[in-house]
Amino acid sequence: MEAIILQILNGLDKGSAYALIALGLTLIFGTLGVVNFAHGALFMIGAFCAVTLSRIISASHTIIDDTQTDFLGNPLKVEVPYVMDWFGEATGAAIIDWAVPLSILFAIPVMIAIGVIMERGLIKHFYKRPHADQILVTFGLAIVLQEIIKYYYGANPIPTPAPSAFVGSFDFGTMLGFEANQIIYPYWRIIYFAFAAVIIGAVFAFLQFTTFGMVVRAGMADRETVQLLGINIDRRFTLMFGIAAAVAGLAGVMYTPINSPNYHMGMDFLVLSFVVVVVGGMGSLPGAVAAGFLLGILESFASMREVLAVLPGLNQIIIYLVAIIILLTRPRGLMGRKGVMEE
């Protein structure tokens, strides 16, 4: 039972990332009809927003500290972050420590701007082109963005730690009545799952309960009728592209303590996220979220030592096997709509 609970927790953690990226992908496809293979790159850029802000607030200058000396008795040169000069030592240290959560505030406008520029500068020219053309151009854009990140940040992963308050693990077992140290899980992975739940809930609430969201949903169902009512649906769809980019970016920001940012992390998640979208049903937001968590949990169970001892490598292919089975039995996916990508 302890192993099962632990694998469910692992699956929810991984499924959170899949669900957030797939949610953004589905928002773009559902509003604009674009198959965006650059969406994984937006996840990567979000992660590097956290790296960038961490570097900015950790910028320092050198001072001579007369209270410290080297082995020859000379005063030491020490690096003092500027934020400690501006806000005091305690506050400055706290700002540096909380760099990753603070990156959320930095990443939101950056990712929305990148999404709007991407849509207005490139994607809009491919609305009426075949999906194959959309895939080729967005995949090419993803490679370009990946190489830009590699040029400026290097090829090696960049460790970006979580705040010290969330370093360590939580004993789930004692909370559930098990013995101590039976079900231990890292604090930050719990935070990531909770964060993903909040973002997913916020997106659904935005679409369901705001006037802007209602217009967008109407435009997704019947774009021409909404335009005939005098509503500039294209402007709203452009902003939705920016919101989808922000969702992917925030997923990347909060994932940095779990997986150190590197230039190819977007590609690592891209293919899996498209499988999630297809399994959930093209154009279905609930389907994307449900499939993300489902496949994350299945992948987690397939990674157990007991399973791998019987079926080596199953964890590498389980998502694709499930996708094949579901699409053979339900060609539109779990919650796919009739007519989506069936022309």
Give a structural overview.
This protein is globular. The strands form two sheets. A two-stranded antiparallel ribbon has the order 1-2. It contains 15 helices and four strands. By secondary structure, it is mostly helical. α2 packs across α12 (265-280) and α9 (211-221) packs across α11 (233-255). The protein has one domain (2-55, 104-329): ABC transporter involved in vitamin B12 uptake, BtuC, CATH 1.10.3470. The longest helix has 31 residues, at 2-32. It is 69% helix and 7% strand. A hairpin with a 5-residue loop joins β1 and β2. The protein has helices spanning 2-32, 39-57, 82-87, 89-97, 99-121, 131-153, 172-176, 187-209, 211-221, 223-228, 233-255, 265-280, 285-302, 305-310, 314-329; strands spanning 60-69, 75-81, 169-171, 184-186. GO terms for molecular function: transmembrane transporter activity. This is Branched-chain amino acid ABC transporter permease. Keywords: Amino-acid transport, Cell membrane, Membrane, Transmembrane, Transmembrane helix, Transport. Belongs to the binding-protein-dependent transport system permease family. LivHM subfamily. It is a multi-pass membrane protein.
